């Protein structure tokens, strides 16, 4: 669908989801690549197209922390609707890791971008990765602690998997990178959730390889099994989000299966 106009793409998905789920309100979801890269005029031209789409209630736009500034954030904050998310790729709070994987920014850049976005009224979703080259579980947990201290309202947790035609793929082929085992990933995630602020919304908890691109590990290709395994471990170890975060002395009621009330607003 990459050669279709924004409107045509939106209308196709709107009709598909309406038929399947009967939903009538939608968010514009711009995720692939860096959606704020380039001049401000390029971004505003896209936003102008989105404003004209029917049933649009807000925006979810993904980008890098080094590709936003006050003017671009203000333009995003002016987008009409009840919910506007800025998704920022942090990946790790360890600057040595960020340099190793050639991210092109440091952790401080993420903190500045998240703070600017929050000041303008945008909800911030942080993307982080478990299993980056050279990182330990402690590095991963430190990244979550870093996110906790910032005005972040959502998080996407990804497992690092090896794709064809990538530098990481070359490292893996030469034995210079070994992906996490499934049990390791689950262990990292559940202990990460234990220290994650309980008000942070979890948008994603594992990656989702495209057909044909996955080299390793094989377990990364079965999303539903990973989700179920994480759920099972949380239950068996009696771990819940925020348990060790210092932000919730007791289990928040909204983590109970019997809870019927509203989820509290993000801080």
Describe the fold and architecture:
The structure is a single chain. Helix 2 packs parallel to helix 3, helix 6 packs parallel to helix 8 and helix 8 crosses helix 9. The protein is built from 9 helices and 8 strands. With 267 residues, the protein is an alpha/beta fold. The model has no long low-confidence stretch (mean pLDDT 93).
Write the SSE topology:
Blueprint: H1 6-21, E1 26-30, H2 40-51, E2 56-63, H3 70-77, E3 83-91, H4 95-100, H5 107-119, E4 123-130, H6 137-148, E5 154-159, E6 162-163, H7 167-173, H8 182-195, E7 201-204, E8 214-216, H9 223-236
Parallel strand pairs: 1-2, 2-3, 3-4, 4-5, 5-7
Antiparallel strand pairs: 6-8
Number of strands: 8
Q: How far apart lie the N and C ends?
A: 37 Å
Q: From the helix content, strand content and strand pairing, which structural class follows?
A: alpha/beta
Shape: globular
Summarize model confidence as the mean pLDDT: 93
Largest sheet: 6 strands, parallel
What is the CATH class name? Alpha Beta
- Helices, by number, come to 9
- SSE string, helices as H and strands as E: HEHEHEHHEHEEHHEEH
For the biggest β-sheet, the strand order reads 1-2-3-4-5-7
Q: Any idea what the CATH architecture is?
A: 2-Layer Sandwich
Fraction of residues in H or I helices: 25-40%
- Rg: 19 Å
Low-confidence stretches: none
CATH topology: Transcription Regulator spoIIAA
Count of separate structural domains: 1
């Amino acid at each position: 669908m990459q050669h279709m106009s924004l409107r045509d793409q939106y209308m196709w998905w709107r009709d598909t989801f309406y038929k399947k789920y009967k939903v009538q309100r939608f968010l514009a979801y711009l995720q692939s690549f860096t959606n704020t890269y380039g001049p401000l005029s390029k971004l505003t031209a896209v936003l102008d197209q989105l404003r004209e789409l029917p049933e649009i209630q807000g925006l979810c736009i993904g980008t890098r922390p080094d590709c936003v500034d006050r003017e671009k954030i203000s333009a995003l904050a002016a987008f009409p609707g009840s919910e506007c998310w800025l998704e920022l790729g942090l990946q790790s709070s360890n600057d040595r890791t960020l340099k190793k994987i050639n991210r092109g920014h440091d952790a401080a850049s993420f903190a500045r971008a998240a703070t600017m976005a929050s000041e303008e009224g945008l909800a911030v979703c942080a993307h982080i990765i478990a299993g980056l080259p050279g990182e330990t579980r402690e590095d991963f947990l430190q990244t979550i602690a870093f996110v906790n201290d910032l005005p972040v309202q959502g998080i996407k947790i990804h497992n690092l998997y090896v794709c064809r035609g990538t530098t990481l793929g070359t490292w893996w082929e030469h034995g210079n990178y070994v992906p996490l085992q499934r049990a390791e990933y689950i262990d990292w995630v559940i202990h990460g959730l234990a220290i994650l602020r309980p008000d942070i919304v979890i948008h994603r908890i594992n990656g989702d390889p495209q057909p044909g691109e996955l080299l390793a590990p094989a377990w990364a290709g079965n999303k539903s099994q990973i989700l179920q395994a994480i759920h099972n471990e949380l239950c068996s170890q009696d771990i819940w989000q925020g348990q060790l975060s210092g932000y919730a002395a007791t289990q928040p009621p909204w983590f109970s299966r019997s809870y019927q009330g509203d989820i509290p607003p993000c801080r």
